[in-house]
Structures are given as C-alpha cells and as structure tokens.
From TrEMBL, chain A:
SUPFAM superfamilies: 4Fe-4S ferredoxins. Its cofactor is [3Fe-4S] cluster. InterPro entries: 3Fe4S_ferredoxin (IPR001080), Fe-S_cluster_ET (IPR051269). It comes from the Bacteria. This is Ferredoxin. Ferredoxins are iron-sulfur proteins that transfer electrons in a wide variety of metabolic reactions. The lineage of its organism: Bacteria, Bacillati, Actinomycetota, Actinomycetes, Propionibacteriales. The keyword Transcription does not apply. One of its GO terms (molecular function) is electron transfer activity.
Automatic annotation (TrEMBL), chain B:
One of its GO terms (molecular function) is oxidoreductase activity, acting on NAD(P)H. SUPFAM superfamilies: FAD/NAD(P)-binding domain (SSF51905), FAD/NAD-linked reductases, dimerisation (C-terminal) domain (SSF55424). InterPro entries: FAD-oxidoreductase/Apoptosis, FAD/NAD-bd_sf, FAD/NAD-binding_dom, FAD/NAD-linked_Rdtase_dimer_sf, Reductase_C. Residues 2-297 form the FAD/NAD(P)-binding domain. Keywords: FAD, Flavoprotein, Oxidoreductase. It comes from Kribbella kalugense. Its cofactor is FAD. This is NADPH-dependent 2,4-dienoyl-CoA reductase/sulfur reductase-like enzyme. Residues 320-388 form the Reductase C-terminal domain. Coiled coil: none annotated. One of its GO terms (cellular component) is cytoplasm.
Length: 64, 399
C-alpha cells in the first residue's frame, strides 16, 4: 500500500500528523509530506484513518 | 440502517459501516439541498470567493454505497418502535423503521435575540456563506460579533479582501473560550497586527438600524458603524426533532462512552450533536470539530455493529485547526479541561508560540501557533497524559 500527498491541495491542517505521526509531517512550507510512501503494514490502519480524516481530501491510498 | 444527518459525521458513519462489513440496506438522510461538503472551508476560501460548493464536495451520493435522501428532515423519533419520521422535500413526514440508527444531525448557529434585520448574518451552511459573500462584494464595513473560531476566521477573510473589520468579543481575548486568555492574547495580536479593530471586554447591547443594520452598540457605550454584521456566538445542537422521544434531557444527544445513545436501543450518535459522557468525567461534553466527527463516526459505527459491549470512544487526542491570515493554529486535546498553561516557546516577532496545558501537572492539551513541527510530539504528550514539561513559564489558566 502506498500513500500519496497532493501537496498543492494540502492546507496544513495537521490531522494526518495527529493520526499517524510516524508517517506524516508538516514541512516548513506548511504542507504535509509522507516519510514512507510505501506504508509499513503496522501503520496501514492509521494511514487509512488519516486519509479519512483529511478535511481537504489531499491524501490518497494506492493499493498494491 | 438509517443515518440521520448527511454532513461529515453522517457520511463517515456510512463509510465506516460499509468498511466494517455491514452489507444490508443503508439510508442517509440530510436536510440540506446539496450533498455533503467541507464545512471548514466556508469561513475561509469559500467565503473569499475562490470555490464553488461543488469544489468543496465531500462525497457525492454515487461515491456512497447507500440511498441518499436530500432536502429531507427527520421530525420525530419513536424509541420503542424503532422508527424515525422523515419529511422528504416538503412532503408530509412518514415513518422509516430502523434496525440501527446513527444520529448525526449536527448543530445550528446561535443567533442574537434581536428582530430580523438585513445585513445580519450567521455562518454555518453553504447558503449562509453565499449570502454573506454576495454582500462582501459591495465593500461593506464588517462587524463580527463574537471572537471565537468562526468569528476570527471570518474577520481574517474579510480583512484579507481589504474590508474594514471590527471584532466585538465579551472576554479579554479572542478565542479565549477554546484556548484560554494567554494564548488567546496571541490571536488578538495577530488580528490587530493585520488591521482588524479588536474590541475585547465588549458585549453587544443593541443593533441599530431600520430594515437594514446600521451600527452595533457595545456594552462600553461605543457605537460601531456596520454595513454587515456576522454573528459568531457558538452553536446549538439540532435536537428539536427529538422532543417527545423520551431521551434524557441534555444539551445534545446524551451518549455513553461508546457513543450508544442513552435511552434508546440500537441507536448511536456522532459529531456536533453528541453530548459525550466519557467514563472518567462527570459532565458530558460536546466537541464541535471536524476531526472529532470523523473519529466519533468510526466508533459509533463499530458500536452499532458490535452492540453495547463495544469499546469506548477515545476522546483524548482531538485536534482542531484554524487559518487566519498567514498564521496556522493547531490545538490538540482539550484546553478547557486544564487548570494551568505554560509557554514552551513564545516568539511574538515570528508569531510563533507553543503552549502546553495541564491539569494536576499532567498534559491535557497543546496550542501551536505557526508551530506545526510540534504536532507529532505534542500529540504523544497529550495521549500519554505526560508530566508537564518544566521549562518555560507556567501560570494559572484564565478564560
């Protein structure tokens, strides 16, 4: 499973970091990045929650 | 299964029920005229005129594996018979039986108790925002009544459009109800620094005008000329349809720790309408934020499928955010539960602040102004109820 951040859509609301701090971080420009594009299985559930929580729909999961 | 309320909590409840394996009939009922949209945009980019309601759509009915009824209002709940009466597009209400019910009817904007007057607005729905946006095109002088989250965001959007803006706030600092006076003072500085006239310790005693508003009179006796007034004084849960249902009286729908509705079988609640009674706290709380609605919907769906033995909702890690001008505020946890606040970083020049809130020396919440780099560690400290970090300066929390 991969997670993709649309950095042009990202508003830096931080919900992804609150839900899955191991995977996401807000950069200095105010938009999120994913540390692991390929999500380790142990964090798959929290990444799914982050995708569901994002209020601007900037996160997308690409299943293998 | 029936989900009443088709905004973020209702939509996420539908998605969670399907994801958690429910394969039966599912109906989503909403009283607005369009499918669910991203309400947090209304006070920001939508109001500024950059977006249409289609562009802030959350999920179209085609995306959701369920029947969607729009323009449909629940009018009555019959607990014993497990029925909800629904008036569809103005037709007479008729009963819908349910085996499982999600109550996600949200809240509505509280209004000033004054006779209706043109130029006076609230902001909750896309229609509210469109009406307000249309008026902003005429370069009005804007007075915002209430310096909470919505009021501050509307003020920032209006000021960024070049309008003259005044905020009238009864406490000593903007957003103090949510984040206390100490951090609220930073928001006051932010707004003032961008040319918003911030009138704190100021109640509203009167709106003057004829058919249309002309001025706002404050408790200090000041009369502020106004072409447009935006009232942001909080919200009230949408529970009038539950009158006569026999549910216990509460501000909102009283829910158990796992979000089962108290006093009703096979019913759960999610989102702004819920008065959530956690196992640890004496009083139920309403949490009116996007992230809370998303997570409550997930737990509520789980409870509906699993039954009353389902585990409780985790209310410790909530988060809300606010964009005002070029600043971003993140609030983790609930500062309202704290008795002490300590600035771990405070740099007014860079408009940067990290404030830690504690109760009995344990971390309850963080407010991060332009400090998103703290999100990860702040979240951990809040969830762990860690000991209050000892650097920085501490002071009792004031509201």
């Amino acid at each position: 499973m991969k997670v993709v951040v649309d950095r042009s859509a990202c508003q830096g609301t931080g919900l992804c970091v609150a839900v899955a701090a191991e995977v996401f971080e807000i950069e200095d420009d105010g938009a999120a990045i994913a540390h692991h594009e390929l999500v380790p299985a142990e964090w798959a559930q929290s990444v799914r929650e982050a995708v569901s929580a994002c209020p601007v729909g900037a996160l997308r999961i690409v299943e293998d | 299964m029936l989900v009443v309320g088709a905004s973020i909590a209702g939509v996420r409840a539908v998605q969670a029920l399907r994801r958690q394996g429910y394969e039966g009939t599912l109906r989503l009922v909403g009283d607005e005229d369009v499918p669910a949209y991203r309400r947090p945009e209304l006070s920001k980019r939508f109001l500024a005129g950059d977006l249409s309601v289609d562009q802030i759509a959350l999920a179209t009915p085609a995306d959701l594996d369920c029947d969607v009824l729009l323009n449909a209002r629940a009018t009555r709940l019959e607990v014993a018979d497990q029925r909800v009466w629904i008036g569809d597009a103005g037709a007479d209400p008729r009963p819908y039986r349910f085996d499982g019910l999600v109550i996600a009817t949200g809240a509505h904007a509280r209004r000033l108790r004054v006779p209706p007057m043109a130029g006076v607005h609230v902001l909750r729905t896309h229609q509210d925002a469109e009406l307000l946006r249309a008026e902003l095109a005429t370069s009005p002088r804007v007075v915002v009544v209430g310096g909470g989250l919505i009021g501050c965001e509307v003020a920032a959007t209006c000021r960024s459009l070049g309008l003259a803006v005044t905020i009238v706030e009864p406490t000593g600092a903007l957003m103090s109800g949510a984040i206390g006076r100490e951090v609220g003072a930073r928001i006051t500085e932010l707004q003032s620094g961008h040319g918003v006239d911030v009138c704190v310790n100021c109640g509203v005693t009167e709106l003057r005008g004829g058919n249309r508003v002309e001025s706002v009179v404050t408790s200090g006796g000041r009369e502020i000329a106004a072409d447009v007034v935006v009232v942001g004084i909080g919200s009230e849960p949408n529970t009038s349809w539950l009158a006569g249902s026999g549910l216990p009286p509460a501000t909102g729908v009283l829910c158990a720790p796992n979000l089962a509705v108290v006093g009703a079988r096979r019913a759960v609640g999610a989102g702004d309408v819920v008065a959530w009674k956690s196992s640890g706290s004496a009083r139920p709380v309403r949490m009116e934020h996007w992230e809370n609605a998303v997570r409550q919907a997930e737990t509520a769906a789980h409870t509906l499928l699993l039954g009353e033995s389902a585990p409780g909702f985790d209310g410790t890690g909530g988060l809300f955010w606010s964009h005002q001008f070029d600043a971003t505020l993140h609030v983790l946890g609930d500062p309202r539960a704290a008795d002490e606040v300590r600035f771990l970083e405070d740099d007014p020049g860079r408009q940067r602040a990290v404030a830690c809130y504690a109760r009995d020396g344990r971390v309850m919440a963080f407010a991060l102004l332009n400090s998103a780099d703290w999100l990860g560690s702040a979240g951990r400290l809040v969830r762990q109820r860690a000991a209050m970090p000892l650097h920085g300066t501490g002071e009792p929390l004031r509201r």
